[in-house]
Amino acid sequence: MEVKTSLLDNMIGVGDMVLLEPLSEDSFIANLKNRFEHNEIYTYIGSVVISMNPYRSLPIFTPEKVEEYRNRNFYELSPHIYALADEAYRSLRDQDKDQCILITGESGAGKTEASKLVMSYVAAVCGKGQEVNKVKEQLLQSNPVLEAFGNAKTVRNDNSSRFGKYMDIEFDFKGDPLGGVISNYLLEKSRVVKQPRGERNFHVFYQLLSGASDDTLKKLKLDRDFSKYNYLSLDSAAVNGLDDAANFRTVRNAMQIVGFMEDEVQSVLELVAAVLKLGNIEFKPDSRSNGGDESRIKDKNDLKEMCELLGIEQSVLERAFSYRTVEAKLEKVSTTLNVAQAYYARDALAKNLYSRLFSWLVTRINESIKAQAKTRHKVMGVLDIYGFEIFEDNSFEQFIINYCNEKLQQIFIELTLREEQEEYIREGIEWTNIEYFNNAIICDLIENHQNGILAMLDEECLRPGTVTDETFLDKLNTICAEHQHFESRLSKNSKFLTDHSLPHSCFRIQHYAGKVLYRVEGFVDKNNDLLYRDLSQAMYKATQSLIKQLFPEGNPAKVNLKRPPTAGSQFKASVGTLMRNLQTKNPNYIRCIKPNDKKASHIFTESLVCHQVRYLGLMENVRVRRAGYAFRQAYEPCLERYKMLCKRTWPHWRGPAREGVEVLMADLQVPTDEFAYGRSKIFIRNPRTLFFLEERRRQCLQDLATLIQKIYRGWKCRTQFLLLKKSQIVVSAWYRRYAQQKKYQRIKSATTLVQSYTRGWQARKLLRQLKYQKRCEEAATTISAFWHGTQARRELRRLKEEARRKHAVAVIWAYWQGLKVRREYRKFFRANAGKKIYDFTIQRIMQKYFLGLKSNMPPMSPIDKNWPTRPYRFLDGTHKELRRIFHLWRCKKYRSQFTEEKKAVYEEKLEASELFKDKKALYPSSVNQPFKGDYLEISKNPKYQKLNSAVEEKVLLADVVNKINRANGKGTARIFLLTKKNVVLADSKTGQVKASVPLPDLASVSVSTQSDGFFALKLKEGSASAIKGDFLLSSEHLIEIITKLHRTGAKAADKEQINVDISDEFLVQFKQDKVCVKFIQGSPKNGNGASCKRKNNRLLEVSVPMTA
């Protein structure tokens, strides 16, 4: 069975401030401190959650925690923000009630993180599915985008939201998210142009400069150095714990998930870059001829780059910074701007650019995340807005922020009381009016349509004539002087005349959270929030479509002379809409408190926390909640928790839960005025009664624990005894069995031993009898064997003696013969001993040398140069001769493998080497090219069938050559055929024979030393073929043609070889004239080949490319 805990179990301090006893501000702060020091950052005030910022990560936001709080009663577990989120989600899903979660607190208290936790919890517990997951992802990823453009580092918070955000998340009937709508309130756009000391501009500026690629920055005309931009503060540019480069990548990814197109992202980055460039524009004074002052831009480079980014003509924007046009009904007046006005116009444009871009981002996100279905939706709103602000210097921004908090406090009290009253009526409990401070009078002081501060500020801004902050303060002093929550030193109320804590240029309002002193300087300008029409029209002329959307009032066709609404009136209208929206929903509150100003963990500053408790109205909240009944609980969990306090309800109550609670309270004798019975809950008036029940329950649980321990110990001992008894019986049985088995084994062993001894005696007796008979039979055989052995040994001794005598004679004879030979040989040996030893040694060395050569013979390849080293110097000649003989032998073996065709190829290659090696530059490139001969396949190609039939002999070479024309040096394609007897030139297209020259008529062949393919066939004078003159030809296979021609000509001319002349200048006989062919190195005009050009009637010049 699942054991459920309660808010009251293992409680550190008091988990619900309604139960705090005694209730005072000191005890309230002490309870918060006690819980904070034990890492309990959440505390309840009824259904309100107080959240302390721990400034560190705690293991209480894991998926396991989400499952722990899922579908659990609000007071069932210890206080947690998940409990409030689950209560709101289940009320929306099961009871069809629209919900809103109001998150308030000052900067750095953790409001943004709280809103993220609420959204992440709802995303985790709602339905699954591809479309649902996509919607959840888009809703969650909208946060990084808005944080980048709307959050900044302040002295109080490194990620402070500088705008108010309200998000309506829409669900279907199953509780699955369909989409959402975001509303933003009062972006702190003044931060764009100026930041307090120790603070930064909005995150996106630093993220862009740190995380964008070099290519992106180049397109945006930006530099990574922060110091180059006037709008970026340098003292806090780097923040510990913030990785701007990584955050920029996160924002780009989030924008893609939300649904931004790539061109939209680029336009947004261009606007951000334009704002940075705008801050670098500076002005200098310039006097006009009429004596008036005007301004001029110092350096126009930043202006030019900004105009290029936005697509605006530079001259148009430059004029807008120098002149201001005021339009009446029928006339226009143009005035020049001095330096101060120009700077004001620049900053106003920067603020409007950024604030309108932010509003466009919110609208664009809404387009992506809005619900597509048209049916009615359930809505959960999450409000993350600034808390009450009290600074040393409070201005217009703090005034309207505190006005918003006054309205939230008003609706908080109203909704809390209404919720209390509705629950009392629902449970049938009599409702009594509760006394509390109603701050409606403060709200009326600010927002009254006639005499309210905002109405008077608007009236002062619209009034003709000289309007200053001082005239506005005078009006306040006149109209609001008698108001009990308004204080001014210049008012008619004399009690403030000597109040030196109240300066003359200030007024003070007594808010519900305390008195706040406001300095009127800048109220009128900030409320006007004017952007000169010239700048709006200049922006509208931009070619970038996004700029046109941001400045629709700049359209000349839609000029509106009506004054735009003031900032105060716009914010008042937004707050009014927000309040009406919140009143239609069931509220849930999260009050965020920061424990210290150092942004450090484990530090609790009591004065700071006390200040926040006061202006958040938490004590007021507790008092309102405790004005009736401090604690209420459903009958079933109440009976389940306290049933052990009464014998009639313990351990099980069989009747209805309410009757059981009534029996329980009667048995405990609790005074009847301390509690009341509702329809489904019991209401307890005083926390002391609840603590009395808890104390009795604690004592009873101790008694029950003692009883359970006693029963358990008795059961354990009894079980142990029974187990020992059962074990003893089993051991005894096994022992008796073992003893009987051992006794039986001994008897069996003794019987077996007696039997074996008896059988052994009988066997031995029979063995003795058999052995005696066998010995008698073997005795005769043994005697006979011994006799025959004696006879054989006698005969053997005789034979051995006879053989020994014969051997002795032979040995003596051999020794005598050896002695005679040694005596005869000794005289010869002494004369030739040295020579014989030398010859024997040389013979052994040669034998070893030849055997070594045999085992280390080199490979049979003719190109292998290896040969074993000689072991002795006297073998040098022999070693070299053997190497030569071996090389000749393996060359012969290698040649013997050649076919006749292969022999012919190698002979041609060898002859080519003899003709051209080191003489012709073209030769090295032809070495690795085989001589193919018939390149045209003339016998197989039907195109040359006619030509093949005209040639009777076998064709040795067929190729296409160029015949050089003497007149212009250009070549004409000809087919070159070489047979055993003739050289034939034929037309390459028709195959018709143009010339046939017998080989004996060839006198010589001339070629150059260059890498060209030109050659001249010179004919013998007086021959029949010499009538038309010599032939000057060009071929890619020059080496092969000349080689084959040289070999074939020698055979045809009775071994008289054709001469091959190699020279860079030779004569060619063209009919009657001789022409000199000269080869030069140069750069030919047609590609990389050699080109021939006629210089004069006697000179043809061939240009050959230079070789590397």
From TrEMBL:
Gene3D superfamilies: 1.10.10.820, 1.20.5.190, 1.20.58.530, 6.20.240.20, Kinesin motor domain, Myosin VI head, motor domain, U50 subdomain
An example molecular function term from Gene Ontology annotations: ATP binding
Localisation per UniProt entry: Cytoplasm, Cell cortex
Record-linked Pfam families: IQ (PF00612), Myosin_head (PF00063), Myosin_TH1 (PF06017)
The keyword Phosphoprotein is annotated on this UniProt entry: yes
Residue ranges of every copy of the TH1 domain listed in the record: 920-1106
Name of the molecule in the record: Unconventional myosin-Ib
Organism ancestry: Eukaryota, Metazoa, Chordata, Craniata, Vertebrata
